[in-house]
Amino acid sequence: MSQESLDIPDILRKYGxxxxxxxxxxxxxxxxxxxxxxxxxQINPADTILEIGPGLGSxxxxxxxxxxxxxxxxxxxxxxxxxxxxxxxxxxxxxxxxDILKLDPARLVPGSGYLVVxxxxxxxxxxIIRHLLDTKCLPRRLALTVQLEVAxxxxxxxxxxxxxxxSVQVFGKPTIAAHIPAQAFYPPPVVDSAxxxxxxxxxxxxxxxxxxxxxxxxxxxxxxxxxxLRNSISGGMGWSKVKTEQLLLSSGIDPLRRAxxxxxxxxxxxxxxxxxxx
Length: 278
Description:
By secondary structure, this protein is an alpha/beta fold. Helices cover 38% and strands 18% of the residues. It folds into two domains: 8-200, Vaccinia Virus protein VP39 (Rossmann fold, 3-Layer(aba) Sandwich), CATH 3.40.50; 208-277, rRNA adenine dimethylase, C-terminal domain (Helicase, Ruva Protein, domain 3, Orthogonal Bundle), CATH 1.10.8.
């Protein structure tokens, strides 16, 4: 099938539309970069793909040529008729108008083992990842195009950890699969991007019964980065400093350390200690 690039500016003019900055609409138009996303996703012919934010369908067309089925969820109602036109020749593509955060992935793509491909803006990166992974029907892999800085944060190691890094790494192993320059998008953003590939674990590293406690502790720990864990967690969880210090010590963690220095394994130990003594 044709690999000819879509003329995104011309399509937008034809339909009287402009990129919506509030929705973070920067369309990936460079063919080599689009192919890099396809390569990162590691698609098998039998795969079902959940694409979030297909935009005008440049990547969707390529996904449809590789996968058995593509479910494309687009929040911008103005793009739906365009997508229907552009993707009319691909019967294996289902276009859904909606906000992914308000939709149940298990209803969109029943069964585990599907792939998620998404070009997502920074401000909802963490929310989308949590939403996708807080479900019984887990995807096998995520291929996410995000700002380069965000990609680096997702893949961070202890010493430079963040709440975003923990939110991803508790569910899977992230790696940066490709770099994408700003000029590969229309309109070009002010920063470069990267494709982050996340291989999802069969089970989260924290048991489902403790995952809420894990996120509560992590959010408390990172809520005041300049404070020690004893102070930030006690304040965020509403615990006394004495109780918090005891929990940290029983987990083998110095109460004077800061949240970004902890490994995922240390957060696991803190969750176990907190769960037992709560």
